Amino acid sequence: MEIITGGVTAAEGFEAASTAAGIKYQDRTDMALVYSKEPCVAAGTFTTNVVKAAPVQWDRQVIDGKGKVQAVVVNSGIANACTGKEGLGYCEETARAAGEALGIAPESVVIGSTGVIGMQLPIEKVKAGVRVLAEKKNGSLDNGTDAARAIMTTDTCEKELAAIIKVGEKTVTIGGMAKGSGMIHPNMCTMLAFITTDAVIGQETLQKALSEDVQDTYNMISVDGDTSTNDTVLLLANGLAGNPEIRYGTPEYETFAGALHAINEYLAKKIAGDGEGATALLEARVEGCENREQAKTLAKSIVCSNLTKTAIAGHDANWGRILCAMGYSGAQFDPENVDLFFESKAGKIQIIENGTALPYSEAEAAKILSQPEVTVIADVKMGEAGAAAWGCDLTHGYIDINADYRS
Q1: Radius of gyration of the chain from Cα atoms?
Q2: Percentage of the chain with pLDDT > 90?
Q3: At which residues is there a site annotated Involved in the stabilization of negative charge on the oxyanion by the formation of the oxyanion hole (predicted)?
């Protein structure tokens, strides 16, 4: 696998566009289009929140029906969640407008929305934006990056990555973009991710690849513990690479799944590190577990702990908060066997051994915790399994952003 420059337009046959439709923001682009020259097999995972936004309901119908997808239309600013039949009708109107503008079937259009819950979309602005997007689309990498910017809400930067692999004698490309900064606690945030590939692969195999990988990537991040109404991850494959079909359980599948994992993990970490008001990406690695589920439960509990997150914000090596978070996670372990470390580009320091504090330099620990990426490593000494989870520190900035989010 080779990481390359690009995002959703990196793969053969995919185009993108962005525009400022004035849906909520008046000073930025707020709509994006991803389009494939050929219909795609599609896979998706969606929020487990009982309250599901209209675009989630629309997209699930398309994905569950195993229909071909040729376009994704995304808006930011308004989530189109808790909007009743009117909101769902707006999805249909958007798909119909995209179908007319692009010359494709409306049922081949999927929708993404992110922003304020409870507001109705200004549908005429949305439909006008769709027409502009159809005219502006092209396959340039710049257009892909612009699309990634257009789907941002409180994000501070666009999030995209691409990679190439060899399948047989053919080069297969996978690229993706994502957004997410607050209301991030996926359980498949407001989290959207769109992955494109030119691979030849069946729909069921594609869905298995995505569903399996989401468990170790997007479902292992948390900013604030809130699972959004709009969480959506879509994976589209148009087959233009012309490779021998990738089949589940083969070496070629493992290669494809590995590249997909690299992109999903990168995007997930970018979302976690760009949490609202955050100054640091917090990674928790738990080692020495009996099985993966134990490790994942412990790691996720660490990054979800508000007290741990505030300690990281203050560069305070308050290790008791971490051990406490592990203790209420529901996973069983012996706290008197735990070793704990802090690590960053500034170095690595052991804080506790066998559940007891070691003598260490508070100044050195603060220096390590002052970096933009900080890792907590916990070894519970019970086996060989491990897992990682990602979050961020919790600062006053989070309150500042969310106290007046609707204004």
Answers
A1: 22
A2: 86
A3: 114-115
Q: Cβ distance 253 to 65 under 8 Å?
A: no
166 assigned ligand-binding residue = no
Residue 402 marked as a ligand binder? yes
Residue type, 400: D
Q: Is the pLDDT of residue 362 over 90?
A: yes
* Residue entry with tokens 């589940």: 248
What residues contact 39, with CB distance under 8 A and at least 6 apart?
68, 69, 70, 104, 108, 238
Catalytic residue among 190, 229, 232, 395: 190
Nearest residue to 234 via CA among 303, 296, 151: 151
The mean per-residue pLDDT over the stretch 325-338 comes to 97
Q: Write down the pLDDT at residue 178.
A: 96
407 in a known ligand binding site:
yes
Give the residue from 79, 356, 47 showing the smallest Cα distance to 219: 47
Of 270, 291, 293, give the one whose Cα is nearest residue 283: 270
First to last CA, the chain: 44
Question: At residue 221, what are phi and psi to the nearest 5 degrees?
Answer: -120, 155
Q: How many CB atoms lie within 10 A of CB 1?
A: 16
> Residue 201 has which token pair?
């692969």
Provide the CB-side half-sphere exposure for 339 (13 A, CA): 10
For residue 377, what are the contacts with CB-CB under 8 A and spacing of at least 6?
285, 286, 287, 340, 341, 342, 343
Decide: 355 and 335 in contact? Cβ < 8 Å. Answer: yes
Query: CA 229 to CA 248: how far, in whole Å?
Result: 31
**What pLDDT shows up at residue 48?**
82
Q: Which structure tokens are listed for 123? A: 């549908």
Report pLDDT for 154: 86
| Angle, CA of 75, 77 and 80, to the nearest 5° | 70
d(CA 147, CA 168): 32
CA distance 92 to 279: 40
Domains (range + CATH), the chain: 2-273 (3.60.70.12), 281-403 (3.10.20.340)
Question: Is the pLDDT reported for residue 406 higher than 70?
Answer: no
190 is an active site residue: yes
> CB burial class (10 A; 0-12, 13-18, 19+) of residue 320?
middle
Q: Supply the pLDDT for residue 124.
A: 98
- pLDDT digits 0-9 by tens, 180-223: 876 556 553 458 999 999 999 999 999 999 999 999 999 999 87
